[in-house]
Amino acid sequence: MKNLAIIIGSGIGGLSTAVRLLSKGYNVEIYEKEKTIGGRTNQRVHSPFTFDLTASLLMNREIYEEVFNYANVNYEDYLEFIKVDPTYRCFYPNDIHYDFSTDLVSLIKTLESISSKDSIGYMKLLSEIYERYVIANENFLQKSFENKLDFFNASTLAKALKTKTFSTSHELISNYINDENLRKSLYYQALYVGVSPYEGPSIYTLIPVVCQLYGLWHLKGGMYSYVKALEKVISHLGGKIITDYTVDEILISNGRAVGIKSKNKKEIFGDLVISNADFPYTMDKLIKNDIYKEKYTPIKLNNLKYSCSTFIIYLGLKKKYPILSVHNLFLNDNFKENVDFAFTGHLPTEPSFYMYCPTKIDSTMIEIQGECLNIVVRVPNLFFHTITWDDTTIKLLRDKILYTIEKINGLEDIESNILYESYFTPKDLKDSFNSYGGTAFGLSPTLTQTNYFRPHLKSDTIKNLYFVGSSVHPGPGVSIVLLSSKLLVQEILSNL
User: Fold this and answer.
1) How many CB atoms lie within 10 A of CB 255?
2) Among 117, 340, 409, 483, which residue carries the largest CB count within 10 Å?
3) Which residue blocks in 332-412 are alpha helix, DSSP H?
4) What is the DSSP pairing of strand 240-242 with strand 88-92?
5) Mean pLDDT over all residues of the chain?
6) Quick check: is 228 in a domain?
7) HSE on the CB side for 312, CA within 13 Å?
8) Does the structure show a pLDDT above 70 at 416?
9) What is the tens place of the pLDDT at every residue in 29-45?
């Protein structure tokens, strides 16, 4: 009889792990508390508009394809990738904007319009970070670090030093770039993993470099089309997805994970359990016996560092806006002060934000001549008790953001053309997706919470219990979670 793998949660990590295990002969059952699958990589549909709920940046296209290749399935039967260029359009106060392209000629023209010195500095910065990225990808992102000696050995530590992660993104970027607007366009992208560019390690400058060198992609139908594709493959391979099943406990017998339990529903037993629920939530809520919590007791969990959260406005617009690209940044004055607010418990007074407009290149996400627009602002997580996410707070922040957007030339009438509007807050992250503390990216990927120091893919105290997702190694972001799924299955198979 085939081994049965029980997966808690149908986020990207859970779904991709299911595909991999099914292709290796496992029986797989996924248990999801919501009525729809996908976790935070979800969608919001309000005809005639379709919005990606959270994830929208598709970097490292190869890892998206690799899940299908692993299962000997042709991804082209399920997905259609569309190249995004320019990668970003960056807006600034005083009616300034720049396009950043993967095309070298176009990029150089943009940079030279800023300054020749910064054009040279930008290229030097790309070169240095690319070298670090190659080292990090080969020696850290592609290894699981389950054992102490996997990390604490002369070779690995020497390579860690070569990544020069002890400086911040701000320090590294400012060594090469003088223009403040250009700096801000690079600083902002560290926020994609929920860390501050002024405090987080400089390794996260690899995000703008990966975008620049490898490009950004869009999936036709939005990011949720990837969830739907994985669902189809799981069904084709014989896996099961059970929705509306809230897991309340991981069952443990004699130090071994043997199944899951839900109130008012039958217990489910299997040969191994994989939690795609947020790791801190899993340890706090799903493992009842403190003996098995390892070092992740409630006190320990409270002392860990967590990523910031996010506030999203979804706008369904009844007209097209040529000034928008697919991926847009508005980088405001007093940038540092307002970025810091997301990590000190305050709402921004002059917000900088990301605007995602997929309908520039994807007509399948809208049924009229208009736009779907997500406006994303980094805000404090719920561990700060200074903000109450009620209607008053939402309206205050919403009005501030819309007021700022309407100062962009070409977007002056945006509010008068809204057909649909809704919001997503840190409270939604916590309530709908069990995101611990309402964080957007789980545990913060600081130096002391990465590689061997980040929660492992395999439990140290409970046999046959595994983890996948943003809060475990290698870290946050859809492409990195897909990588954690790959490492996890390698670990499971090696344990056989």
Assistant:
1) 13
2) 483
3) 335-341, 391-405
4) unpaired
5) 94
6) yes
7) 23
8) yes
9) 999 999 999 999 999 99
The answer on pLDDT for 142 being more than 90 is no
- Residue 50's DSSP bridge partners are 45
How many separate domains does the chain show?
A: 3
Distance CA 318, CA 460 (A): 54
The pair of structure tokens assigned to 314 is: 């979804």
Q: For residues 366 and 222, is the Cβ–Cβ distance under 8 A?
A: no
What six digits make up the tokens of 267?
């217990």
Give the pLDDT score at 241: 98
* Last residue of one domain, picked from the residues 196, 214, 232: 214
Residue among 34, 445, 438, 462 at smallest CA distance from 274: 462
In this structure, how many other beta carbons lie within 10 angstroms of the beta carbon of residue 97? 18
- Amino acid identity of residue 40, one-letter, is R
69: CATH: 3.50.50.60
Closest CA to 423 of 393, 382, 451: 393
Are residue 291 and residue 347 in the same domain, yes or no?
A: no
Kindly report the length of the chain: 496
Query: How far is residue 489's CA from residue 161's CA, in Å, rounded to a whole number?
Result: 29
Residues 273-321 have pLDDT tens digits of 999 999 999 999 999 999 999 889 999 999 999 999 999 999 999 999 9
Give yes or no: residues 282 and 256 share one domain.
yes
What is the rounded CA–CA span in Å between residue 354 and residue 185? 11
> Is residue 411 scored above 80 in pLDDT?
yes
Burial class (CB in 10 A: 0-12, 13-18, 19+), 392: exposed
Q: Which domain holds residue 334?
A: 306-433
Q: How confident is the model at residue 190 (pLDDT cuts 50, 70, 90)?
A: confident
Residue 188 included in any domain: yes
Whether pLDDT at 151 is above 90? no
CA distance 127 to 495: 39
Helices (H), 27-115: 61-70, 104-114
The rounded Cα 472 to chain-centroid distance in angstroms is: 13
Residue-wise over 420-456: b if at least 16 C-beta within 10 A, else e? Answer: beebbbbbbbbeebbbbbbbbbbbbbbeebbbbebbb
Please write the tens of the pLDDT for every residue from 352-379.
999 999 999 999 999 999 999 999 999 9
The residue assigned the tokens 């000190």 is 344
Kindly give the pairing relationship between strand 81-84 and strand 49-52.
unpaired
Q: How far apart are CA 481 and CA 38, in angstroms?
A: 13
- In contact, 189 and 200? CB cutoff 8 Å: no
Which H helix or E strand runs over 171? helix 169-176
Same domain, 237 and 259: yes
